[in-house]
Records
---
Amino acid sequence: MSTSSGSDPVRTSLLKLVSRGNAIIAELLRLSEHIPSPFLQQDKDDIKKYGEVIFDFRYLSTAEACDHRVQSRQDLVEAEEELRLNHLERLERFYLAFESIWKYVTDLKTFIENLSNGIYISHTFETVLGDTDGKQLFSEAIYLYGVMLLVLDARIEGVVRERMVIAYYRGKGGVHDLSNVEDVCRLCRNTNFLAGPVPRRPPNYPEEYFARFPLPREVIQMVVGRLRSDDIYNQLKAYPSPEHRSTALATQAAMLYIMLFFVPETLKAEAATMREICDKYFADNWVLSFYMGFTVDL
């Protein structure tokens, strides 16, 4: 994999994926500060006015009954029209952000399949992970997908996502105008995770959440193996003291934290591997920043 030429197709594909990934996360963070208040259902006036025209994913199995109830009352028709006029444009931006996550993981899986099938001549997983740029970019592409999922769930609560997706779905006239709505619904379905000073984590979270659109296990294992064995950013040269190892490897530690959720069998059952990771990356540091502004106390 050429590190000096921008014409290398693998390098170009990975650069595009990583840049898209960072842009998607930035958009999620921006949008999370501007969630329309009716969909938060925190204000009594909003609940009274819009509560009967805002639905979660249960709407999909009772659509006819819900639509009939709304159409049979003039006050609900007016409330829904007001909701559409005031918020449909912003809801479209939220929907496109959710859809962009699905498109990202679809394109990432396509890249992995192409690399596996020999579409990129002279490139294999081994050559990509053996190259300085390749192992950095490939690891980051997978890591950023995991970060997207965690940021989405931490900053936009699951039930709020469902309400906004259904409101946009109804505002656009149904599935005929939204070709990827089923995949977006699967991605945005409520995980029952609640962020806060003391987060409420449901059982097997976020492993089951990450498994909604899984990546090939053997590929994740290869990347995890590379992160375990290599200093992929060559930071140890700048931090020669053993006391500073956790600082030197902090970026890789964050990437490992995310990637292990894609291979929960390693996380839960492979004690020797986890012992090695903990001794190398977390021997003296159990508070981890896995993305800008997001920390976790292990």
Note: The chain has a mean pLDDT of 90.
---
Amino acid sequence: MKLKELIGQLEGVKTWRQPKSELEQYPTPPDIAAHMLFSADAQDSLDDALVADLGCGGGVLGIGAAMMGASHVVAVDIDSQALEVAAENVAEFEVPVDLVCCDVLQLSLRKQALGAVGSADGATATESRWTGLFDVVLMNPPFGTRPDNNGMDVAFLRVGLALCRPGGSLYTLHKTATRAFIGKTAAELGAASEVVAELKFEIPRMYKHHRKACVDVDVDFWRISATDHRDPYPPV
């Protein structure tokens, strides 16, 4: 599939009917989504890959990955209304995408297993079944710069990287202003990171606090490779 063709297909993917400002829901523009997918395919190959789309919204990244040959895609969002739209899109495009309604931040948390040897209280932490599972993880996370959502971008990054198998890659968007911190966080997690491209992310007037018809936000498109798996939530 050519880039122009993929952009045209993704333009048909519907987004939220009622976006929620508290979740910082901003749709990934089809051209940016297509360039993310082409880059992921060139560097990690989406063909026959197991892919996760975190904070999927209408599912544009996950659906695009399936169009490009991913064997299976798991698309996750905390917003059940967003997943209703995603379900319509998956049905329309007839792609192998499973939709999961849950908090992305819970996906990599360790669970307590009872009766384990070596634990004083008979319980020990076990890996989440999602950890280290995916070849490629795609996401356009909340920017995490609003007071009520501070740090959410980095929280998503930690989870996305934890879900990658060793040698897998996370493809993600973050505000350019956070570049130094994102790079530092990736390094602390034992990951190799690079800014693939600097982009203009167009945000139309969607919420009451928006004053302009649209705003271009400077964002970095990152590839972060899981070279050394570390616990995204190490003990303090």
Note: The two ends are 47 Å apart (CA to CA).
